[in-house]
Every structure is written in structure tokens, then in C-alpha cells.
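Late entry, written up from scratch paper. The run itself happened at the end of the previous shift, but nothing got recorded in the book at the time, so transcribing now.
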Amino acid sequence: MHISPRWHKVIRDLWDHKARTILVVLSIAVGVFAIGMINGSSEVMTREMNSQWATTNPPQATLFTQPFDADFVATVRNMPEVADAEGRRTYTARFAMARDGLTVNNAKPDATWRNLSVISFPDIRDIRVGKLRPLTGVFPPGKDEIVLERLSGPWMGAQAGDTVLIEDANGKMRELRVVGTLHDLSQSSSTFDGTGKGYVTDETMRRLGVEGFTELAIIAAGDAGLTKEGVTAVADKVGKKIEGSGRTVDFTFIPKPGEHPASETITPVMLILSILGGLVLIVSGFLVVNTMQAQLSQQTRQIGILKAIGGRAGQIMGIYYAMVLAYALLALLIAVPLGIVAARAMSGLLAGMINFDIHGFSLSPRVLGLQLGVGLLVPLLAALWPIVSAVRVSAREAMSDYGLSAQKVKRSRTDALLGRVRGLPRPLLLSLRNTFRRKGRLLLTLTTLVLGGAIFIAVFAVRASLMLTLDDMFKYIDYDVLLAFNRPYRIEQVERMALDVPGVQAAESWRFESARRIRPDDTESESVVIYGPPPNSALIHPNVVEGRWLLPEDENAVVVNTLFLKDEPDVQVGDTITLSIGGKDLDWTVVGVVTQTPPQATGFVNMPYLAKQMGGVGRSNIVFALTEQHDVASQIAMAQTLEKHFKDNGIQVAQTDASGKTKAQINSQFNLVVVLLLIMAILLAVVGGIGLMGTMSLNVIERTREIGVLRAIGATDRSIFNIVVVEGIIIGLLSALLGALLAFPLSLAMSNAIGNSILQASLSFTFAPLGVVLWFAVVLALATLASLLPARSASRVTVREVLAYE
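Output as recorded:
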């Protein structure tokens, strides 16, 4: 087959400079790979997660309330606005596996005790909302039997036939036999949140000392279920029905209709990763610019000859664009299949954490088209300026060029300054001066490494900021154990009772209510948590961002958090708002705004005034306890001890919480985000390393004559090798310094973006010096490795090659 001369030239240039071709192809491939991995996994996850979520007949709203029975569920189902409803109760207890001699009569304190959420329904045989999918063994379970969620069994070390030792609500040890597994799409992995999940009948739950159901899941009738506003209106009517029965609604959760609740967190995080993936591809384009500039400079005389024999500018541009297109196509051949594999692996990893399956992995034409489009467009755009600049040179100017090494580079101030440097070894001086010889190429190389380093360092700053935010959350209300009661009790009674338990150092009573804002247009907001701390509370440490905190003499004053303002953006400090609390519409003046903690729309008011309005002056329905031991296991044990103590004294506890357990769960979620960001940072570092290797290779090629001169005056292979390696290390260290400077503003921007995507508010920002130290170590290793091959090539240049070099 005859190949035209122009295509013969393209193929020859690609083949004769294999190292350069490989570096450019790999650089482009990493960017295309990142685009495919992120967008592919995001598409597959969203599609599979939401389609499987729909098969469970998922709740459109869940109301958390005081205990109710099956008859009340039937009452709600009969409401014309409700298509269906389901009750559920979750009781969290300590558990241990009954093995190695551990029995109900021999509950060793040093046994491995962990958390188990025991879940029941009015009729586990007929779950209508939020359906479960039985997998193995027996379903439904019988008396004193439990079916485990499929991801909980391995985490618990339990399988069918094993016995779980569990502490019931009265502090007694009970045995539940494991009889099977099921899949509950609403539950996350136990490894992820540190809690097992098991399912029992209502009869077994009552034998554990737990009565009634506290979660009411509903599906709106008709078109109301198509929008969040319609679901909210139905949830409001159900909430009023609950309040009319003498119960209070603690919280209402309403996800976006048709989407798994995890979508609200996953989608914005994947968007941020997609932006970083695009940045990887753009940065890889810098290597294309460097490569084409060097190649076109080397072939300036060839371009002159082509013009002299009648070659038009468009034809010459076509030759070099064909070369860039070849780079891009080779990169696509590598990146697209690897991107598909990585997208499958990432979506599988995230699916395991969120607890759904990837039934059929396939990418839409959109994702494949995106990879093809950016994989071709970015390199072609990157090569535009070098090609146009080279082709503009006239035939006379091009043919009078004698090669790169003979070119006279105009001395700049930097060159003059480096020329005055004295006292350094001559090889080091030569490496230093060579570093700044090609300033345009150096700038592009530095840009690649600086961006990679800044993002790498920023990831560590984001992690540190996430951890600081998490600490701030739990310093915000400083407690070890929280107990919520079914109704208000006398403050002196509950605080004294808490302090009677050994290990409790302090106790403070609060008032807790659930509210909705009545907007000026008479619509209602979603649930707002109202905390009523006592004046001058010793537990709360608010971070006021606008206005002020509550004063002891305040009455109808409220301080809202930033999440409240996100939902109600028209509210400002000084405004009067109406809150519906327990069926009463009360006016409050907004006096301040605090950060997002707790992570839900919240208002803080003085407890005495709240109690006066709602009834029960001198009474509270929450008590916070500070304990001597602050580790998670001690907190959980103390929560159970306090719950038993209160119940033994006639006070019904509706809910307990250990701050360390909640903190650990949130920490696991934060770590997932950090891992995803770190993957992108590593990809950028790889592109930077490839870019540096390409730069050093081009520099060695250009200095062939100089290397020959150095040999002629007695330079050894080792000396030449060291000159090249030191030059690469100088570039790497310079990029690390600039990257560290850029990392601070970038860290702040990324922390704000991640915080707003996960918590709907900015993170408590802190910079992490560890990231700087690690990046300096990484870039030193990258620079050394990237310089080894070019240095080896330079040290092996022969006299014949020097004489043959044009």
C-alpha cells in the first residue's frame, strides 16, 4: 500500500521519537482516563441507585415522632392525601456474639460489645413502604429470631445458626438466633457507619422491652408525590394529625422525589471530582504544547524546505495536526478501556458503601462521546499556537536556521542574575542555569507540577478542615450522652437522677421541640429543630456569624443556623418569623445566625420562655450528660446504663445518643470524600511527573552539542548524568514551593466547595502542613525518577551522535 510522503513523515516522526510519543500519549491518556472514570461511575451509580430505590416503593417523607401503634398507621393510610404509610421502630443496643463461653448468664464486661440497630414493623410479613428483599435463610423471623442486613453479617462475624447476645431496654441480656439475611436499600454498610442492622417481629421487639413505632413513612397520593413541595404539603397534614393525637413530631425527612437520599451528597461531590478530572486533562495539554514547540523548533529547516518546494501553510499545518491527532487517538485507545474498568471499580466501591448493586454496567453514548470529544479537542487546541507560530516563519528564515543548539537565546534579567552566582560547584551552576534557559517550557512544566502539588496539598487541608469541622460539631454542644424523654419531666429530678449514676460528672437539661416556619404566603417549611438551652448554658459554644447569641433576659428571641437560612433565604437578622410548635403559632425575632451545627435546620431559644409558651415551666425533655470516660465504648455503655436507670425510676426514655458514635459515623463519610479527592490529586501528580520527564528529555535532545562539548573537555558520564538529574530536582523543588503558596487559597476554595456540597455550609478551615511536607517528598521522588531516563540518555551520547546532530 502506497503511503503519501506527508503521512510517511508523520509515522516516521512518531516512531523515531518513541520516548516522546509515549510521554505525550500517556499524559493525554491520564486526563481522558480521569474524565471517563468520574463521569462513568457517576452515571452508573445514579442510574442503578435510583432505579433500585424505586423498586422498594420508597417513602417520600418520614416523620420521626413519639411512639404510636399499628392502629395509628391504619388511620394515616385512610387519609385522602396519603397513598400508603408504614410504621417502623429502630432500637439501638449493645451486642456480642454468644461464643467462647459468653451467655446471658455470663456477660463478660471485657467481651467485644458493639452497636446493633434492631428494626421492627407492625407486620414484617407485609411491609408496604420501604420494602425489604429476603436473600438467604428464613423470612420472616420467628420469636427471638433475627434476620441480618446482608452487609451486617460479615461485619458482625455472624451467620445463620449463630446466636447474638443483646442487651434489652431493661438492661437484661437476651439471645436472638440468626436465621437469615435480607437487603434493605435504605441502610448503609455497617463497615461505613459502625452499626449492625437486624430485623425482628413486633413481638420480639416487645420482648426486648420496646413498645410502639417512632418512624412513620408515607407516600403522597396523586400528583402531590411528584414534587418536593407537594410531598411537604402532605407531610404537614400528617404531622398535624400526629400532633392532634397528643404526640409531637421531632423531625421530618423529605428527600428529592425519585432519588435515593444519598444522591444529595454523592452528586455534588462527583461534580467537584469531574471538575478536577477536567483540570487533569487541561494540564496534560501543556505537555502537548511543550512537545510540539520543541519538535517544530527542531524541524524549522524542514518547514522551510517544504515551503520552498511549494508546500502551502495549510498543508504543513495538516502534517503536524495529523501528528497531534495520532497522539490523541493512541491516548484514547489506552484511556477509554481503562476508564471503563476504573468507572466500574469505583461505582462498585461506592455501591458497596451505600448498599446497592450494580446489576448491569454500561456507559451511555454521552460518556463515551465526552471522552472522545475532550480527548481529541484538548490536544488539538493545545497544539494550535505552536503549529501556527512555526508555520508563519518564512521559507528564508526557516532555511537559515541551524538547529536548536546553535540558536542564540536572548539573555534576560534572570540569566544575568544567575550569571553572577558564585561559590557553587560548576555542575550545580550549570544545572541551575540550564533550568531557566527555556523559560516558556519551564513555565508550562511548572504550571503542571504546581497545579498538581497545590491540589495534592489542598486535599490534606480539606481533610484537616473536615476533621476540625467534625470536632467543632461536637464542641458546639459539648456532651458525651444525650437522653430524650417521651414528655417533659422536672429539671431537678432528671438532673439529680443522672448525677446519681457513677461516672456522670455533670448533667444539664434542655427543652426540645419540632417546629415549622409559617411563611408570609401561608406555606410551611420543612421541620425545624428547636433547642431550648437554659440561660448561660455551660454546654453550648456557638459560633455566631451574624448578629448575637441569646441573652438571659431574651424572651421571644431566636438564633437560627445557616442551614435554616439555606431553606429560608428571605429571613434576615432583625426579622420576625412565625414558628408553628406543637400546634401553636408563635412569633419570634431573629437576633443572630450561627454556623450549621447541628447538621439540620435549627433554632435556639431560651428554655424558660419556650416552656412558658408550651407549658411545663421548670420541666425538660432532654438531658445532656458529661462522663468521666470519653471513648466511644464507654459512652455507649453509659447511655445504656442511664437509660436503664431512668426507666427503673419510672421515666420513659425515647432516644439515647453517644456523641462518639455519631462522630465516628460522620468521620467515615468524610474519609470517603477524602479518598476520592486523593485519587484525583495522584492523577495530577502523575501528569506532572510525565510532563517533567518530557521536558527533561527535550532539554537533553536540544543540548546534544553541548553534551559533546562537555565530553570533549573531560566531563565523565557521571558528571553529565548528575547535571541532568539536578536540573530536574531544581524544577521539582521550585514547583513544590510555588505549589505550596498556591495551595492555601486553593485549599480554602475546595474546603468551601466540599462543605457546601456535604453540609450545605463552609467548613471550619485549617491548613495542613503535613500536606506540604508530603508533597515535597513526593515531588522530590517524581523529579528524580523523571530525570533518570533522560540523564541516562545524556550520559550515553557518543561523539558520532554529536557530529551527526543537526
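The mean pLDDT is 82.
(Scratch paper discarded after transcription.)
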